[in-house]
Amino acid sequence: MSAVTALPVIDWPTSEQPGAGVLPAHVARSAHGGWWADDPGAVRALLVHCGPERLLRGDPGHLDPGVLARYGRGHFHAPDRFLPLLGRTFTHLTPWVRVLHVHTERPRSVSRHTAAWVRPLHADDEARLDRFARRATTSAHRAGGPHWITETWGGHRALAGSGVAWGAFIGPYLASLACGYLAGRDHLDIAVATDPAFRRLDLALACVHAATAAAHAQGLTPTWSAPQSNHASRALAEAAGFRPVRREVLYRARPVPCPLTAGA
Q1: What gap in Å lies between CA 88 and CA 84, rounded to an integer?
Q2: Residue 6 to residue 35: CA distance in whole angstroms
Q3: Coil, helix or strand for 139?
């Protein structure tokens, strides 16, 4: 595995594309995640990973199945030519459609009172994020573990100090949070989460307002990726001024029962 600061260029456009195309720049910016190449000096196959996100490019014939098997329990963004290899490597491979949105419209307004609760997160907000994660724990999240929204930054401390997170604070509580889930050179892909006790108060919308305004101020295009089946997320995106531009298919993978070896 190579250092994130020397990511090679392969068969994606030279200009950054919204969606999965932001992942290489995010890995370099966040210093979290990494990449594998068959030959860093003459790349024919490349895997970029960060949190649960995986991006595949190049020729699947040069990707070692043993390497690929290490990255199960993730979402693979891959051209169709990788599907036979993914299917042979993982016991379960499920297509998952996400809708990519771009911020192009005026958002629905929130009250000044609600907007006043929102501020940028700082490094000393780590403990507040810890409590937020505990309160948001569901059966899908391990109690005491990091919140999913921090996975592409490496945890609560890293996201709190990233400069791309905004929260609505009510008293001592972090009630809602919007952040750059993937932060690239030209795009900021925004994710949002809200404490169940503080829903339906427009707090998520107020946080997204702050995130999109900051992205525009930095010359970044705000984007939003929502599962096609998540109507609440897509409704919030629309209220915040995002409009759908395309659908992209990801593949959720679960690992093989035992590690593969090269050439398996």
Answers
A1: 6
A2: 9
A3: coil
Contact 245, 100 (CB under 8 A): yes
For the chain, where are the alpha helices, taking DSSP H only? 23-30, 65-68, 83-89, 112-115, 126-136, 156-160, 203-217, 231-239
CB 99 within 8 A of CB 226: yes
Reduced to 3 states (helix: H, G, I; strand: E, B; else coil), residue 131 is helix
Alpha carbons 156 and 141: distance in angstroms, whole number: 15
Cα–Cα distance list, 192 to 83, 168, 259 (Å): 30, 11, 35
- Lay out the sheet containing 165-170: strands in order across: 34-37, 45-50, 53-58, 74-77, 242-254, 92-103, 221-227, 187-194, 173-183, 165-170, 118-120
Place of tokens 């780590």: 126
Q: What is the pLDDT of residue 243?
A: 97
Q: What is the value of pTM for the model shown? A: 0.87
Cα 134 from chain centroid?
A: 20
Gap between the Cα atoms of 45 and 24, Å rounded: 14
In single-letter form, the type of residue at position 23 comes to L
Instruction: Split the chain (264 residues) into runs of 10 and give each run's mean pLDDT.
Output: 46 69 91 89 90 94 92 92 94 92 96 96 95 72 73 95 96 94 95 93 97 97 95 96 95 63 30
In the DSSP assignment, the letter for residue 235 is H
